[in-house]
Design goal:
The complex is a heteropentamer, with two copies of chain A (243 residues), two copies of chain C (340 residues) and one copy of chain E (258 residues).
Chain A: H1 13-49, H2 58-73, H3 76-82, H4 84-91, H5 97-121, H6 125-133, H7 138-172, H8 180-190, H9 194-222, H10 224-242
Chain C: E1 2-11, E2 18-28, E3 33-37, H1 44-51, E4 59-64, E5 67-68, H2 74-82, E6 84-87, H3 99-110, H4 114-127, H5 143-155, E7 161-165, H6 173-190, E8 193-197, H7 201-207, E9 210-215, E10 218-224, H8 225-230, H9 235-240, E11 253-260, H10 269-277, E12 281-291, E13 294-304, H11 308-317, E14 320-324, H12 331-339
Parallel strand pairs in C: 3-8, 3-9, 6-7, 7-8
Antiparallel strand pairs in C: 1-2, 1-4, 4-5, 9-10, 11-13, 11-14, 12-13
Helix pairs in contact in C: 3-4, 3-5, 4-5, 10-11
Chain E: E1 14-19, H1 24-37, E2 44-49, H2 53-61, E3 67-71, H3 73-82, E4 88-97, E5 99-102, E6 117-121, H4 124-136, E7 141-142, E8 156-158, E9 164-168, H5 170-175, E10 182-186, H6 187-192, E11 200-202, E12 211-217, H7 224-234, H8 236-244, E13 252-253
Parallel strand pairs in E: 1-2, 1-3, 6-9, 6-10
Antiparallel strand pairs in E: 3-12, 4-12, 4-13, 5-10, 5-11, 7-8
The chains are: A mainly alpha (243), C alpha/beta (340), E alpha/beta (258).
Amino acid sequence: MSIRSLNVPIDQIPALVFPALLDTLIMVGIVMLIVVLVGIPLGALVHNLAPGGLFENPPLHTTLSWIVSIGRSLPFLILMASIVPFTRFITGTNIGIAAAVVPMAIAGIAFFTRIVENSLRGVPPTLVRVAKASGASPLQIIRTAQLSEALPSIIGGLTINTIAMIEYSAIAGTIGAGGIGYVAVTYGYQRFDNTVMLATIVILVATVASVQLIGDRLVRLTTPHARTQARAPRVRRRETSLV
Amino acid sequence: MSIRSLNVPIDQIPALVFPALLDTLIMVGIVMLIVVLVGIPLGALVHNLAPGGLFENPPLHTTLSWIVSIGRSLPFLILMASIVPFTRFITGTNIGIAAAVVPMAIAGIAFFTRIVENSLRGVPPTLVRVAKASGASPLQIIRTAQLSEALPSIIGGLTINTIAMIEYSAIAGTIGAGGIGYVAVTYGYQRFDNTVMLATIVILVATVASVQLIGDRLVRLTTPHARTQARAPRVRRRETSLV
Amino acid sequence: MISLEQLTKVYGHGDAQTVVLDRLDFSVDAGEIFAVVGPSGAGKSTLAQCVNLLERPTSGSVLVNGENLSQLSEKALRVARRRIGTIFQSDGLYSRRTAAANVALPLEYLGVTAAETRARTAELLDRVGLSNKAGHYPHQLSGGQRQRVGIARALALRPSVLLSDEATSGLDPDSTRSIVALLKELRDDLGLSILFITHEMDTVLQVADSVARLDHGRIVESGRIVELLRDPASGLGRALRPARSHESAAADATEWFVSYTSAAVPTDWLSRLADQLGTTVSLLGASIETVDGATVGHASIGVTGADREHLIAVAHSLGLDARPEPAGESAPAEILEQVA
Amino acid sequence: MISLEQLTKVYGHGDAQTVVLDRLDFSVDAGEIFAVVGPSGAGKSTLAQCVNLLERPTSGSVLVNGENLSQLSEKALRVARRRIGTIFQSDGLYSRRTAAANVALPLEYLGVTAAETRARTAELLDRVGLSNKAGHYPHQLSGGQRQRVGIARALALRPSVLLSDEATSGLDPDSTRSIVALLKELRDDLGLSILFITHEMDTVLQVADSVARLDHGRIVESGRIVELLRDPASGLGRALRPARSHESAAADATEWFVSYTSAAVPTDWLSRLADQLGTTVSLLGASIETVDGATVGHASIGVTGADREHLIAVAHSLGLDARPEPAGESAPAEILEQVA
Amino acid sequence: LNPPTSANATEGATLVVATAEGNAAEQALVNFVAEEVAPKYGISVEFKGLADSNTINRAVSEGEIAGTVYQHKLWLSQVLEANPDFKETAAVPVFRWGFGLWSDKYTSVDQIPDGGTVSLYSDPANEAQGLWLLKEAGLITLKDGTTPGTATQDDIATNPKNLKFTLLDFAAQSRALPDLDLAAGYTEYYLAANIPIEQQIFAPAAPDDFAGQLTIGSDFADTENIKNLVAAFADPAVQEFLATDPTVKGILLPIDAK
Ligand SMILES: Nc1ncnc2c1ncn2[C@@H]1O[C@H](COP(=O)(O)OP(=O)(O)OP(=O)(O)O)[C@@H](O)[C@H]1O
Ligand SMILES: Nc1ncnc2c1ncn2[C@@H]1O[C@H](COP(=O)(O)OP(=O)(O)OP(=O)(O)O)[C@@H](O)[C@H]1O
Ligand SMILES: [Mg+2]
Ligand SMILES: [Mg+2]
């Protein structure tokens, strides 16, 4: 009996791994789009319902905070299983990328809501006062004084969140969504195929490190004092080389 | 054929669920202790090796950032498998709580490093200048100007991290560590035992919401302007009731 | 127009309770510049923040342009606040916006078109002398420049009421003069009421019609500038034009502190005084100027051998208040007292 | 002791390059209080930050107490900075520490015992008048109170050099006087060198031995206070004691601006002038005081029918500089100019 | 740091037998042996659930636990091939798993439409068993020489209905049945999911290769404890239990079931 035959030949690894990477990118991309679109307003809402917020309302805050906590409580597999009917209602199926996106988005939104909330807490209260004094509506305050000033921190949190979602996508693989993490688990881990394991690990590390790199750069770009600071030496170096 | 017989009888659920909850609390507690002890210095180091940091050193920063990214890249199952020899070296076993703590701590440290890094970025640069002008050593700057001022944000991140670790503990359950998340997955998810599923979900939600509540309260307690603000109305209400 | 009725603000609670504003009553008319001075911690900033309801008064009411702000709906309050410009003591700039974008903020909130916003922002920055810093971020601006961005922002919506909390405190005298001139011009053109909080007495003289001194949350003295300056019993008047240290009189002479109390002091009062007393009068120190066209001031003089009552009477006839100056009361002694 | 050699600081790069400090040379001796004034954005704060190397100078060197700071190791620099107190223009308080804990910060860094820290902190807070605010957090303090916490913190380590960037700018005159007295006392007791950045000319007169005017990163004028005040050609001297607006002379009289240029101006110069010219002299406005014991000042006078040359000569013999005052040059006109 | 001595070599020590914790039936079997059979052989046996198969095999090999019944020979040989440091032996076949083709939409294999979606389990051995089942049902043919335990999708010779394959985990597959045309899966996961046995539309007896084996650590095969453990699992009472006990009926089949 040939065990070797179970292992993926090296020359077929790219054909296995790259479509999976693409699946992951698509899955995580769609999920993060939804997460940002829903998580930012939700995070801002939770923050502003809390004591000291714009619409301070302790009972409503507690309720909403519990709902978010539920989204964060369930192990991802359980979350997926619990919302099977909902997922089928939304996407018409329970397998594949479309079906994976629903539970991932729910988990991601809950996560990102907390990230946004924590970032908004860091905005100096004076800026909200300035906005109020300038005649801003609550939505304008949230947009300009809170979200905009917290943007670098939110982007930093988004980076953390995106990487967590890449991990979730590996679990979502169990419902047939595929993805690079799933290939790592089924081919590399369950089939003991060390070549696939190594290949997927390398690709995962590269993907995560790239996301981190892009995130770090965006944080720098959205922080004026970091941006101006970082630009100076680069140019100075160029000048030196011209001389 | 009786399917019911496979399900856990209601009166046995507490005996199944509460020890599991205790396991989870122990596991996550130990992990978070390690995560905080290692993640805070590591996060501060990564932050201060970055451009604009105290020990600005781009090559070292890139290297360290990649290492942290590796810790965040691997699906948790794969991470657990990859570090088997290391886990055995540290704990002498590969199953049980002790063995689960090692990969969880590694994943948690990588996560928390990013959280700390993001929080430190939010500290106004002036405070570091003040510390320098006051004759602070780099360690003192990190402690008093960076970590201390970022504390509320770090605690907020710690809350997010702790809750993520509760989720990881469900996966770590696969190596015999048990825990409430694991009971939820094996009994609730794999055995379709809806009673157990519900019980574990309720307990998980309560646990997570409690962690969140404690975290929120600690954030408020460590933020002077939130603390003083929050205290006032409570007392005013008391005064009213006395009249 | 601003009017306060029994405005009270208490911070903290229980034992830690501090009454920061204590039943304040006053009003600032349309077109009036009302200065508020007072020691650090007197409650000046709190007062400003209560007027636009950024701090909720503990009791009492604030009427701005006739509206009781605390009775307005959230939305009406927002509209009312657009008629109130606020210059914050700490600049309060948005760190991720350029100087121009910070000034544009209230216009953006109001929904002004982009083109108009650009034009108005450029004009405002020009008025505060920052045209060349429009694209700078706050961390690239000096303290005074940041303060001026805050001033421009407060004026963006052409408010009818301006709350100016230490607007000129970080500014050099030339910049201060130009900001003062700008405010006066707006007052004249738009009938702006200005609550002008400052600790710079010189600036009060330059800009204000009236002034109040706040101390421990109470107005301890207030009035029109010239009247206060002409009242030798007024502490606030003395504070506005403090006596400086001066030369001592010759050994045989006595020192007198003479202050202008009427509009009719002749410019040759020194020689008239000498003539009428039949003695020599020497000028040891002086501070005499016109404020809003009225001459005010005081001088320290040395007089040899004149009769006390006679001197006071003659000075009085010249529109002056004269009182003997004990050596111990001169300015340097005051400084030492403050420190002890 | 501070001494700067060709200190230059450039912000930005390429087209956006701004020379903020341009080859500055000066020194502040031990026990000297050296004031720096200048328009907003002149580079004053940048100068202070370069002296303690919080900003790296682009070129040139800074010597503090004889050490070239930019050549020190990280550790030696830290030790050197402990001898340099810095008062920041923006207070820079730690939001999570009480006033007392903020003041204690440098002591904590140095490793002073808890008991000693407590004692010294209490003493410092008392010196700046904040004993009763020790337990307050920065957001519970007024602007001036925060500023004073910053001052106390800068003095915590009994530095030998103090960089004071607008330390008194947010303070009322009484607080300012007491801070000035405190600084002078420390100067006398400890031989403190102080670089005192301010825009308040009054405070310069109160506190400084010398003063320099910084503009566009260059020192355009500097000198000892009294000398500048006695030099009628000195712009800085005029800026320190600006001429205020004054009454107009009678129709038949001409207006003259007379300033003290020597130590020997007789106190009865007005009557002597009238006597020697044989005409009447009226006093239109005046500002005469003693600074550091020396009498300085200027006065606007109205003189009827005196010969121009003769008047100048007589004034000169009395230690005064006299020049005719064109109506158009009085202070209010200057204001309008600034605005245009 | 390794445990100095294994319980396997310690007289009177409790012998831990692990299975995948998700399999309640296997747990019931081990518990039966522990309670009813082990005392006869003078040993004490305890059940432990570990969800991850790798962890179980590693623990067996190193003597952390005494044995496991969760795998068949084919799986074990794969494991050993991939982990040369593992030392394990299949000691005795114990049971067969109930394994069949399931459908929510169709009542016989013939009705499966052209291009239908078929789910196999995502681990290789179960994927192979699924392919074998499809071959038995006449839906596909496998290339010559393909052994039932190692077949992969690459071994499919013909696929006349152009079936599409989706790999899913055990519990996910039963949950996804409404979204599938056909699934090859274990009876236990379907019964647990409240899917009626009628939806199992094809279930022939599996070949011997797929019998669940008691697997032990090779290094400990000669210890008294392990010898007794193997004997306990070989006891006829075990087969009797499998044939009659309602807890495992239909899920775990006696070794000679047809
Ligand atoms: N990071 C920076 N990038 C570019 N320009 C800067 C930066 N920091 C300061 N500047 C510019 O340098 C000049 C000097 O600033 P500085 O703060 O030293 O002025 P200052 O004399 O202290 O003014 P003020 O009296 O208003 O406090 C200003 O024009 C400012 O815009
Ligand atoms: N949140 C607060 N809790 C307790 N006390 C406060 C709070 N905010 C301000 N205070 C106190 O109220 C008093 C008035 O503060 P305010 O800022 O109005 O003073 P100010 O007159 O503007 O002083 P300055 O001239 O120094 O700016 C101060 O003594 C301050 O300590
Ligand atoms: Mg104030
Ligand atoms: Mg400055």
